[in-house]
Write a structure and sequence with these properties.
The chain has two domains: about 5-255 and about 460-485, Aldehyde Dehydrogenase, Chain A, domain 1, CATH 3.40.605; about 260-450, Aldehyde Dehydrogenase, Chain A, domain 2, CATH 3.40.309. It is about 40% helix and about 20% strand. It contains 15 helices and 21 strands. Helix 12 links the parallel strand 16 and strand 17 (about 395-400). The N and C termini lie far apart (about 70 Å). Bound molecules: nicotinamide-adenine-dinucleotide and (2E,4E)-2-amino-6-oxohexa-2,4-dienoic acid (6OD).
C-alpha cells in the first residue's frame, strides 16, 4: 500500500477519495497517493484560517509569534532526515544537496523571519499643527489576513517555507499549496505544525493541481486577502486575471532566461566552475540558472572546451550516492518538454557541444525522467531556444566582442531575473551590473544568498520583492495613526 498524503485543514488531517499519484522521477516508482483538495476543502481551510485570525493568533504579541516560528524550525531540525528523504523521494535530487541546501534553508527561513520581526520597526514623525501644537504620526504594522501561498516543485521546502515563514511571522494565517509534483515536505511541515500544537487554522496545507483545481480555487476564494506565488510566468498571468476581481495583493516570483557574461579578464577556472554550477545545479531546474552564456571572443574556444570537459564529468546518478551531481528532471512531462527543445535547437541550427539526448542507463533509471546536461553554440539571439525558458540542464554559449554588445544582448530578453558577471575588473563589474535589467546580479559568484536582501525579478520574471524588509512590507499593511498632544 502506498503512503497517503492528506490535506491539513483547521488542525486536522483530512483525506479525500480523489487522489493522484506522486511519482519518483528517478525510476517512475510511486512515492505516495495524494488527496486532492476540492473547492469545499479550500473553503474549509479559508474559514479555519479566518477563524484563527479572529482568535488569539490575530492579536498575538510579536515575541510570542517569533517563538512559534522557532518551534517550527526546531521541529524540522528534529526530523531533518525525514525532510531530506521527502525532498529526495519527490525530486530525485542528490541527497548531498537536500542536506546542505534545501532542508537547512527551510530551517533558516523560519529562524530568519522569527528574528527579523523582533527587530522590525515602523515610522514616527513629529508634526506641527497650524497653531504650533505638537502631533505625532506613527504607523503600526498589521497582518494582511489570510494568505494563499502557492509554490513550485523545483526547490520544494526552500520555496514553500520562503512564503509560509514570513506570512506567519507577520501574524497572518496561511492556506498553502505545494506543487502537485512535490507534496511530501509540505505534508511533513503540516505534521510538524500539528506536533508542536500550532493553533488550528493558522497554517493549512492543501494538495492538488493549478488551473481548475486546488490552486485556482484558492486564488478565486473571496476569503483570501493576498496571493504569494512562485512559478511559471504564464501561470502568474493566469493568477493575475483570477485575483483581479477581488483586487487581491500579489507577490510573484516567476521564470527566468538568465545571462552569464564572462569577460576576457575573468579568473578563467573560477568562471568555468561558476557557469557549470549556474547552468546545471538542480539539473538546471532553478529559476536563476544561466541558460544564456556570453563569453568574450578571445577566450571563447577555450571556454567552450573547458565547459564541455567539466559538464561531461558531472555524474548522473542515484540520489543516495554521494558522488551524484545530477538528478532527473521532475517528471516525464518535463523531460519531454526539455527533449522538445533538444530537437528545436537542432532545427534552429545549433551545434550540440555535449548532451542533447535522453541517456540510457540499462537499469531502473530508464523508467525515470532523465536528460543529459547540454551545451549548445551557434544559435542566433532570435532563436526560440534563446528566448524561452527551458528550465532544464541546458546552456547556449555565444561569443561577444565589446562590453556594449554584451550588455545589449544580455538585456535582450522578455525576462529579467538574474545575471552573473565574471570579471576581475572592479570598475567594469559595477558598471555592467548597474546596467542589467534584472532584479539580481551576482559578480564572480552565483546564488549566494543573504535573506535580508530583496529577491525578485523584473518584466516577465515577477512582481514585487521578498526578503528582509521587503517581506515585512508585502506580508503586512500599515495604518498611520495621527495623535495631537
Ligand atoms: P507552475 O507555474 O506550473 O506551478 C507552480 C504552482 O502553481 C504549482 O503549485 C501549481 O499547481 C500552481 N498553479 C498552476 N496553475 C495555477 C493556476 N491557474 N492557479 C493557481 N495555481 C496554479 O510552475 P512549476 O512548473 O511548478 O515551476 C517552474 C517554474 O517556476 C519555472 O518557470 C521557474 O522559473 C519558476 N520559478 C521561479 C522562481 C523565482 O523565484 N522567480 C523560483 C522557482 C521557480
Ligand atoms: O533563495 C531564495 O530565496 C529563492 N527564492 C530562490 C529561488 C530559486 C528559484 O528557483
Amino acid at each position: 500500500m502506498p503512503k497517503i498524503i492528506s490535506n491539513y485543514i483547521g488542525g486536522r488531517f483530512v483525506d479525500s477519495n480523489k487522489r493522484f499519484r506522486n511519482v519518483n522521477p528517478v525510476d517512475g516508482g510511486t512515492v505516495a497517493e495524494v488527496c486532492e483538495a476540492s473547492a469545499a476543502d479550500v473553503d474549509a481551510a479559508v474559514q479555519a484560517a479566518r477563524a484563527a485570525m479572529a482568535g488569539p493568533w490575530g492579536r498575538m504579541p510579536v515575541a510570542e509569534r517569533a517563538q512559534w516560528l522557532h518551534r517550527i524550525a526546531d521541529g524540522i531540525e528534529a526530523r531533518f532526515e525525514n525532510f531530506v528523504a521527502a525532498e529526495v523521494a519527490d525530486t530525485g535530487r542528490p541527497v548531498r544537496q537536500a542536506r546542505t541546501l534545501d532542508v537547512p534553508r527551510g530551517i533558516a527561513n523560519f529562524r530568519f523571519f522569527a528574528d527579523l520581526i523582533k527587530t522590525a520597526h515602523t515610522e514616527c514623525f513629529e508634526t506641527a499643527t497650524a497653531s504650533g501644537e505638537r502631533a505625532f504620526n506613527y504607523t503600526v504594522r498589521k497582518p494582511l489576513g489570510v494568505i494563499a501561498a502557492i509554490s513550485p516543485w523545483n526547490l520544494p521546502i526552500l520555496l514553500f517555507s520562503w512564503k509560509v515563514a514570513p506570512a506567519l511571522a507577520l501574524g497572518n494565517a496561511v492556506v498553502a499549496k505545494p506543487s502537485e509534483e512535490t507534496p511530501s515536505s509540505a505534508a511533513l511541515l503540516a505534521e510538524v505544525a500539528h506536533e508542536i500544537g500550532l493553533p488550528p487554522g493558522v497554517f493549512n496545507v492543501l494538495h492538488g493541481f493549478g488551473s481548475g483545481s486546488t490552486g485556482e480555487f484558492m486564488t478565486r476564494h473571496p476569503g483570501i486577502d493576498a496571493v504569494t506565488f512562485t512559478g511559471e510566468s504564464r501561470t502568474g498571468a493566469a493568477i493575475m486575471k483570477t485575483v483581479a476581481d477581488g483586487v487581491k495583493d500579489i507577490s510573484f516570483e516567476l521564470g527566468g532566461k538568465n545571462a552569464a557574461i564572462v569577460f576576457a579578464d575573468a579568473d578563467f577556472d573560477k568562471a568555468v566552475d561558476g557557469v557549470v554550477r549556474s547552468s546545471f545545479t538542480n539539473s538546471g531546474q532553478v529559476c536563476l540558472c544561466s541558460e544564456r552564456v556570453l563569453v568574450h571572443r578571445s577566450i571563447f574556444d577555450r571556454f567552450v572546451a573547458a565547459m564541455k570537459a567539466k559538464t561531461e564529468a558531472l555524474q548522473l546518478g542515484f540520489p543516495m550516492d554521494e558522488r551524484t551531481d545530477i538528478g532527473p528532471q521532475i517528471s516525464k512531462e518535463h523531460q519531454a518538454k526539455v527533449a522538445a527543445y533538444f530537437q528545436l535547437a537542432r532545427e534552429e541550427g545549433a551545434t550540440v557541444v555535449t548532451g542533447g539526448e535522453i541517456p540510457r542507463f540499462g537499469d531502473a533509471r530508464d523508467n525515470g525522467s532523465w536528460v543529459r546536461p547540454t551545451i549548445w553554440t551557434g544559435l542566433p539571439d532570435s532563436a526560440r531556444c534563446l528566448r524561452e525558458e527551458v528550465f532544464g540542464p541546458v546552456c547556449h554559449i555565444a561569443p561577444f566582442d565589446t562590453d556594449e554588445e554584451a550588455v545589449a544582448r544580455a538585456n535582450d530578453s522578455d525576462y529579467g531575473l538574474a545575471t552573473a558577471i565574471w570579471t576581475q575588473d572592479i570598475t567594469r563589474a559595477h558598471n555592467i551590473a548597474q546596467r542589467m535589467r534584472s532584479g539580481l546580479v551576482w559578480i564572480n559568484t552565483w546564488y549566494l544568498r543573504d535573506l535580508r536582501t530583496p529577491f525578485g525579478g523584473v518584466r516577465m520574471s515577477g512582481i514585487g520583492r521578498e526578503g528582509g524588509r521587503h517581506s515585512l512590507d508585502f506580508y503586512s499593511e500599515t495604518t498611520n495613526i495621527c495623535v495631537k498632544l
